[in-house]
Amino acid sequence: MSNRTKNILVPVIAVLLGILVGTIIMVASGYDAAAGYTALWNGAFGDVYFTGEVIRQVTPYILAGLAVAFAFRTGLFNIGVEGQLIVGWLAAVWVGVSFDLPKVIHLPLAILAAAAAGALWAFIPGYLKAKFRVHEVIVTIMMNYVALHVTNNVIRTVLSEGKERSENIADTASLRSPFFEGLTEYSRLHWGIFIAVICAILMWFILEKTTKGFELRAVGFNEHASQYAGMNVKNNIILSMVISGTFAGLAGAMEGLGTFGYTAIKSGFTGVGFDGIAVALLGGNTAIGVVLAAFLFGSLKVGALNMPLEAGIPNELVDIIIALIIFFVASSYIIRWFIQRMSKKGVK
Amino acid sequence: MEYVIEMLNIRKEFSGFVANDNITLQVKKGEIHALLGENGAGKSTLMNVLFGLYQPEQGEIKVKGKPVNITNPNIANDLGIGMVHQHFMLVDTFSVTENIILGMETTKGGVIDIRTAEEEVRKISERYGLAVDPQAKISDISVGMQQRVEILKTLYRGAEILIFDEPTAVLTPQEIKELIQILRTLIKEGKSIILITHKLKEIMEVCDRVTVIRKGKGIGTVNVSETNPNELASLMVGRDVVFTTDKSEANPAGDVLKIKGLAVKDSRGVQAVRGLDLSVRAGEIVGIAGVDGNGQTELIEAITGLRKAESGSVKIKGKEILNLTPRKITESGLAHIPQDRHKHGLVLNYPIGENMVLQTYYKSPFSKSGVMNFKNIYDKARKLIKEYDVRTPNEFTPARALSGGNQQKAIIGREVDRDPEILIAAQPTRGLDVGAIEFIHKRLIEQRDKGKAVLLISFELDEIMNVSDRIAVIYEGEIVAIVNPKETTEQELGLLMAGSKRKEAGEETNV
Ligand SMILES: Nc1ncnc2c1ncn2[C@@H]1O[C@H](COP(=O)(O)OP(=O)(O)OP(=O)(O)O)[C@@H](O)[C@H]1O
Ligand SMILES: [Mg+2]
Q1: Chain A partners within 8 Å of B331 (Cβ)
Q2: Do B409 and B429 reside in the same domain of the chain?
Q3: pLDDT tens for residues B222-277?
Q4: Which of B384, B419, B454 is the last residue of a domain?
Q5: Pocket test for ligand 1, best of B403, B429, B430 (most atoms within 8 A of CB)
Q6: Residue B161 counted as domain residue
Q7: Do the beta carbons of residue B76 and residue B229 sit within 8 Å?
Q8: Which parts of the chain span the membrane according to its record (chain A) (predicted)?
Q9: B386, B419, B452: which is the final residue of a domain?
Q10: Which residues does chain A have within 8 Å of residue B360's beta carbon, measured at their own beta carbons?
Q11: What is the pTM of this model?
């Protein structure tokens, strides 16, 4: 079997397995599986409103998935997408509420602020890895908590006076699209999906077509050979994290400028950044794969909301089914990843 | 029951490319059986089939007369087959014993019983004269020792038949002598051995019979006592091979590489190169002879920018390059055939074609304003693959899938083709077949005759004597003598390399 067919087959089988085990669980706990899945489908595609919501949900998933995938392809494991997303969200809203500018300046500025914040948040683990060989997984996990608490504090003290949420952003900084809203019976679908798709194309282009991508991937595969070839290993490690963080920050902008239009104190993580890991794995860490996987995840997430309503299946069970799909996908890829890591280290 | 191993009419394909075509190999009990063939002939592939790493498309394998189906290495282990691979498979951060028991740990109440294992390893090590410290960490021991750990690994698993894939390619001459001793001990203890090597001398010295394969096809099996190196070489290549390289007198001109007072520390912080002086002139090949571990590696790494030097000066055509980045040094006209092709030479996951532009990808015509031009890259790769006879299914094959010797040829092609002012060749012919060695030596001499400088580092005195115009002997991080290869003998070199008193006469001969 060629690698290509394997890469397509593995996620498809994983999804089917997830659905199968989900069925068994539903039946075993006395629910009608057929009705459950029908409700899931209807909840995602039964109505243009739902479809609009699916695409809205897909948008940050694509960007979070790209962030994880980009790092992964260059030999880094960015677990910090969640934190980079949160600071991106905050930065976007901050710019969105603080300035009074024409839209052509204000919106791009807010988006750029989110990208820069995400990039900065990823720069720190990148720098520590490049300079002091600190493993990026540990630092990025810690940075997630730092992001959560710092942003909460900023929201409470700077963006509001001790309140739970910020003001709404100015219209000039908003990604909301009355046109899409009209088209989808007032779903929250916004312009961000274009940004996400452009970023997917960008990631593909950078990795596959540019000399930088050639360097970044080479460093991920073999640092010694990259150094021998005259590439700057440290800078490339940092750059890889920064690009990854940029995508993550943009995912935050989608939430701040598109879906919500404000930011609020969070008691826990949004989960989008962590789902991004599953999206990247399911998508085989390629741009097109990430877009498709994000689509699947968005559909499940939004469609699942309908399962309790239409089929009386409890939310918890829905979460279990989604988790199962992720489990099957992730386990196959994690096994592959481990084999690759081990053989790389082992061969002397 | 005459044969311990019989591989009959084996065929192995890689997506249409036939690596083994109807090959038969029969090994008798208690013999050392050589497997000989050019780079890419299919030797490693055949052994990987025997070891259960590859499944043959066709053919039969018998162990001690019984037909077997070896679908994975565990089955090979159970059948008493052990393999010491061309590229070692050890976990660097583990101890010797941990590596050996990996995958078959003995436990006591669910906890790994490392004490008993260490004792066992020590016993086996003593029995076969391997002198391995069971507690040493892999990253702290020499390549030769690592190889012994691989041998121990197979013996620990109860191997009766041991496969050695080019074991001597990574060893120093002294280590080779010791390995040969070990092979003899193994035979005495009732083992059978299959030995892959390109060194005809070794075959003549230790082997009983030799099976020759050429381009994936079996050519035949001969008794070593009834053959000679020349016949073996021509059987293998399909034409006559000359062993010594003809070359005209060197016409050296001005200094290209000038090293003064170079001091470098090794990774542990020990002074490895101590105030070394050396110059290589345009139009000459300088060979560095020395026992491994006398600062050669650190010297090369400092010249090429892979390691920071403490002090001193390294100039290329008068321009100081000490402690510049590898990129700047490369652009000053230096090319480097690295000692460790897997660590430095190649990005194994990249196609061999993209490895051909590893240092030049950012330049025209391989890219333009930061965008790669893959058409030009692969055109170039095809040209180099043809010119340097790199045997690969095509230019898109990952470098990992090339045979060891062909990986080496690809690197040499890439480096020589850049037409550098100074070419640093560290063990350039390691793992190459005699035909390829002849070819590479010619290219080095050609480079010299074009008026370029070549610095050759090799542990093989034959190679140093044959190819160099001047020989610099390195001992404890210093050049202790410069001798003319025509006026010296291997004995004299050997003494100098062992540090026997600096040769005052060295100053007279051609500095
Ligand atoms: N996994 C693989 N996929 C594709 N081609 C392969 C693979 N492994 C080996 N080959 C090809 O099969 C041929 C034989 O390779 P093999 O490694 O057996 O050669 P070899 O005789 O051991 O050579 P060397 O002396 O250089 O080590 C080579 O041309 C190689 O490119
Ligand atoms: Mg081989």
Answers
A1: 230
A2: no
A3: 999 999 998 998 898 887 777 666 788 888 889 999 999 999 999 888 999 999 99
A4: B419
A5: B403
A6: yes
A7: no
A8: 12-34, 54-72, 79-99, 105-124, 189-207, 237-265, 277-300, 320-339
A9: B419
A10: none
A11: 0.86
